[in-house]
Amino acid sequence: MNREAVGRRYDAMLMQRARERSWAVLQDIRQRMQPGIDEAEAKAMAADIFTAHSVQRLWHPPIIRIGANTTKTYRQRSHPDVRLGENDIYFIDLGLVFDGHEGDVGDTFAVGDAPALTACASAARSLFDEVACAWRNDGLSGRALYDVASERAQAMGWRFNHAIKGHRLGDYPHSVHKGGDLGTLEGAPSPGLWVLEIQIAHPTKPYGAFFEDLLVAPGAD
């Protein structure tokens, strides 16, 4: 099985464009996240922003986690009735389609005066950057990338979510190609096809952070 198979419509430039447009949508959602909002309200607000950005479709439902729910994976249900506090943390995970090509982006943000939460969000980004750098410089396999992520998270003092293993993207729907998880890929992932997902949590306190982006060639950021 070719785990990097794509459809006849696949275009690397359109993949990069879908990535850029997905990040623009995420930043617009971030600008409208205010204390007091709950996750259902945030998703409804996000739907309006999808329309404004001419999102073609969703390839996975938007995920917005607030407070203690930031420790949960995409398969776990949020605790209900959690609202964004004055000093709090949340993350956004979007799977959007533009021009028949998929984007998948995620980031975490702290609000108010919350230095520990800000540090957690920054740590997820830093860990992503370290692992992506190891991929670019050392040509590591997908499996090895997640070994690096786990080791570095522990060294940084965070609990690493081993259930998150990254995945394929492509021309919609990428699922027909059955690429599987990045964390089980024995070879080095090709640029522009694989999403590296990072999720960490405080070892004892109920908050965490998430970051994901497409692994792209040097200079494509």
TrEMBL record:
Residue ranges annotated for the Peptidase M24 domain, each copy included: 14-215
Sorted UniProt keywords: Aminopeptidase, Hydrolase, Protease
A single MF term (Gene Ontology): aminopeptidase activity
Source organism, top-level taxon: Bacteria
InterPro entries documented for this protein: Creatinase/aminopeptidase-like (IPR036005), Pept_M24 (IPR000994), Peptidase_M24B (IPR050659)
Signal sequence, renumbered to the chain: none
Coiled-coil segments: none
Name of the protein in question: Aminopeptidase P family protein
